Amino acid sequence: MAQVIRVHEIGGPEVMRLEQVEVGDPGPGQARVRHSFVAVNFIDIYFRTGRYPMPLPNGLGSDAVGVVEAVGAGVVDIKVGDRVGYLLGPQGAYSDVRLMPAEVLIPLPDGISDRSASALMMKGMTAQYLFRQVYPLKGGETILYHAAAGGVGLVACQWARALGVTMIGTVSTDEKAEVAKAHGCAHVIVTSRENIAERVREITDGKGVPVVYDSVGKDTLMASLDSLQPRGTLVSNGTSSGPVVVDTTLLAVKGSIWLTRPAMIHYATPRSQMLAMADELFGLVLAGKIRGEPKQVYALHEAAEAHRALESRRTTGATVLVP
């Protein structure tokens, strides 16, 4: 029997229940993975609250690391005993063991621990597609990145530094500002007491930035637009404060702005692309240019408290569950 967090209705953290379910042998193309760490991501809250619809009842979570216990027929590039991580596939990572499509499993290098990988899989792959695919950074740019002390943000700080990119990051508190700076963020704007667009213009000598990566959404939309150069790009990669609704006329008024809303699935498939993304991330980790460890660790049965902490912005960096 597996220990699994499931939801039977949408709502607050209290709708998550710890249940026991039967997990059988893997079928064709599947592998059974026993988890060592399960990542908690803001997208999990979107599913729990119904912002992203899913059939109910259902599990939560799409990002975990562990070891392969068994493989089904037709699985050739994953074997029993392999340490793996994943960030695609069906919801249900909040569990101690589960069946997964083998095609989404990513082998972990020997030099990267399960604990470190749990903080870097989704966050690091997200930074990869934002910085290397959605708006490819070449080095020398100055960019604006919202939520710089978050899970993806701390990886982005380090990746920007490795690329030779000057990153302006936003955070909500002075304490988070220090964390972002320690991870390589060149300039930090504390949103509780500073005007974002004014500070960006000051830092860039009035020019603005060519790209803004905005995972906050509704609350930062205007500041993001006002921080961009003419024909700049707004990458709306999250909506933690609420959905973004834009009159396209506004994009013209603000400087013929390009707006994109990317999703991991469209950048990490097919499998060959996903593995190439992971190789680039792991290469930087093994070279010591990107480091990641969970900042908050909860037991699996404490998943509701992990969600409360994440929603209330009490966290920095990555949050994980330990089965």
From TrEMBL:
<keyword id="KW-0560">Oxidoreductase</keyword>
<keyword id="KW-0521">NADP</keyword>
<dbReference type="GO" id="GO:0005829">
    <property type="term" value="C:cytosol"/>
</dbReference>
<dbReference type="GO" id="GO:0070402">
    <property type="term" value="F:NADPH binding"/>
</dbReference>
<dbReference type="GO" id="GO:0035925">
    <property type="term" value="F:mRNA 3'-UTR AU-rich region binding"/>
</dbReference>
<dbReference type="GO" id="GO:0008270">
    <property type="term" value="F:zinc ion binding"/>
</dbReference>
<dbReference type="InterPro" id="IPR011032">
    <property type="entry name" value="GroES-like_sf"/>
</dbReference>
<dbReference type="Pfam" id="PF00107">
    <property type="entry name" value="ADH_zinc_N"/>
</dbReference>
<dbReference type="InterPro" id="IPR013149">
    <property type="entry name" value="ADH-like_C"/>
</dbReference>
<dbReference type="InterPro" id="IPR020843">
    <property type="entry name" value="ER"/>
</dbReference>
<protein>
    <submittedName>
        <fullName>NADPH2:quinone reductase</fullName>
    </submittedName>
</protein>
<dbReference type="GO" id="GO:0003960">
    <property type="term" value="F:quinone reductase (NADPH) activity"/>
</dbReference>
<dbReference type="InterPro" id="IPR002364">
    <property type="entry name" value="Quin_OxRdtase/zeta-crystal_CS"/>
</dbReference>
<dbReference type="InterPro" id="IPR036291">
    <property type="entry name" value="NAD(P)-bd_dom_sf"/>
</dbReference>
<dbReference type="InterPro" id="IPR013154">
    <property type="entry name" value="ADH-like_N"/>
</dbReference>
<dbReference type="Pfam" id="PF08240">
    <property type="entry name" value="ADH_N"/>
</dbReference>
<dbReference type="InterPro" id="IPR047618">
    <property type="entry name" value="QOR-like"/>
</dbReference>
<feature type="domain" description="Enoyl reductase (ER)">
    <location>
        <begin position="11"/>
        <end position="321"/>
    </location>
</feature>
